[in-house]
Amino acid sequence: MSTNNLSTSKIPTVVVDDLNIKYRVILGANTGSAAGALRSLVSGKAPSQVVKSVHAVKGVSLTAYEGDTIGLVGRNGSGKSSLLKAVAGLLQPSSGDVYTASQATLLGVSGALNKSISGNRNITLGGLAMGMSREEVEAIRQQVIDFADIEEFIDMPMGTYSSGMQARLRFSIAAARQHEILLVDETLSTGDTEFRARSQAKIRELSGAAGTVFVVAHGHAMIREVCNRSIWMDKGVIKMDGETNAVLDAYEADVAEKKAAKEAKDKDK
Amino acid sequence: MTVTSPNGDSSAKELATQHGLVSASKIPGLGDYIKSTWRRKDFVAELADARSTQQYSDSLLGRIWQLITPLLNAAIYYLIFGVLLGTSKGIENFTAFLVAGVFVFNFMQVTVTAASASIPKNDRLIKAIHFPKLVLPLATVVQQIQQYAVSLIVLVVIVLLTGEPLTLMWLTLPLVLAMQILFTTGFALILARWGARSRDINQLLPFFTRTWRYVSGVFFSITIFTATMPAAVGTALLLNPGAVYIDLVRDSLMVTESSDPIIWIMGAVWAIVFFVVGLVYFYRGEKKYVN
Fold it and tell me: Where do the domains of chain B lie?
């Protein structure tokens, strides 16, 4: 091994280059009634929709390397999930770009792929969608069922599952495959303690195998335990990027400070 | 404060290309796009099958409805048009004529309607996993082909029961169906892209398909019906893809019906034009299906 373990020996797997993500949220038409819609039609004015443009990610740049397990922290709406979606190719950047060594897999909070079919068929659907062959799906099926620990429910429609069970199955389907780049978004917070421990072990195994893992989780203990690097996002920009404990300490101090300030303000009223 | 690439001197893009990284938002070329869709043919089949199961999961008779629905359809059309309105005038074997028209047209109508909703309906899947979205409308087409196969078996039985003989013309049926499926797939892909953009298309589509049904000679003979109108009207109706494929199926299965060679040519033309245009048009919208 070279003594220089800086950029020269590290192999980048994800490069985010000045990424901007904006999306439009349609909050609904202004005119709630049919009469109102007709009036706007007659007057020739387009039915005015209340459209809000959300600038979720603002000029983010970062490089992740082989073996990196990166925690993403920040308040709700700070752009963490949008960033992961863009890395997975599930959101189109407004400008800038994301480069990856291979197709990244996102493990999101969305539970079932299809609620009205059984867990077993969801395994097939998920595996095939990721590009596996039928044989490959059969080879991992039992492993997925065991890992998710839902043997007795596997033939029931996934809509009947609890959200924890859905999340477990989704995690297991995606984790059954070897991924170079795995993006974990909040999934782990839904499982029980025992499953959380197992999935943490799985994440460590994946990142150990020269993979790159991004983790978004509310539980900071989990991030401190598995992530060697963390990124603090605030209002769409990276506020801090570095060693996990340093970043989380700074973030937690900021949260505590803001909370104290808010309480003081409330008292004044 | 913000620590980015340690290689501060080389730009992010250079670093990426240097290590062979690929843009996550880049859509592959059409050839690779088709290849990656083809690799997921099992996914297409599974989606189609899951949807069929889903469709009948709440009914006691289950998939038997695949057989009952076309039969009921044919019976209703027979009652209204054959018995009550008497559009059967001048048609030798009206029962077979009508059932062929209804089944052949229904396949096209149901497929394009379902395809227009194929992107929004699979929202969960699209948001969770990255794959070529072409598989979604294709799964709709495959599902409807399975349904169509059942209808065609019923049609063949009815055609034989009404006294049509087995002839060499029956051998042209696979060719006719292949052309019809290509046309329908292309049309379905166009509507799938429109349907992804706005939900309004789903409101308008029933009016379009109803009109299309009335001008396609499902339950009357266009030639007889337009005899008193300007020739251009009859020709336009006869050459519309709906009428073309109905006509060709009738030509294949019934000795009492025959198609002009121009109808056969139009069958091939519509198939190729719609399939190619539909495929390219849907592919070009690929970026729009994710947001």
Answer: 27-289
B23 CB neighbours in chain A (<8 A) are 97-99
Cβ neighbours of residue B1 closer than 8 Å, sequence gap 6 or more = A239, A240
pLDDT in tens, B32-42: 999 999 999 99
Rounded Cα–Cα distance for residues B179 and B264 (Å): 10
Could you give the angle at the alpha carbon of B168 between the alpha carbons of B165 and B173, nearest 5°?
95
Nearest to B107 by CA among B237, B199, B245: B245
Using the beta-carbon criterion (under 8 Å), do A88 and B125 form an inter-chain contact? no
Give the residue from B127, B70, B74 showing the smallest Cα distance to B97.
B74
pLDDT (tens digit per residue) in B144-182: 999 999 999 999 999 999 889 999 999 999 999 999 999
Q: Are strands A105-107 and B22-23 parallel, antiparallel or unpaired?
A: unpaired
Residue of B nearest to A157 (CA): B54
Tokens 């077979």 correspond to B96
Residues of chain A contacting residue B39, judged by C-beta atoms under 8 Å apart: 131
Cβ-Cβ contacts under 8 Å between A and B: the total is 145
Q: A6: which chain B residues are within 8 Å (Cβ-Cβ)?
A: 6
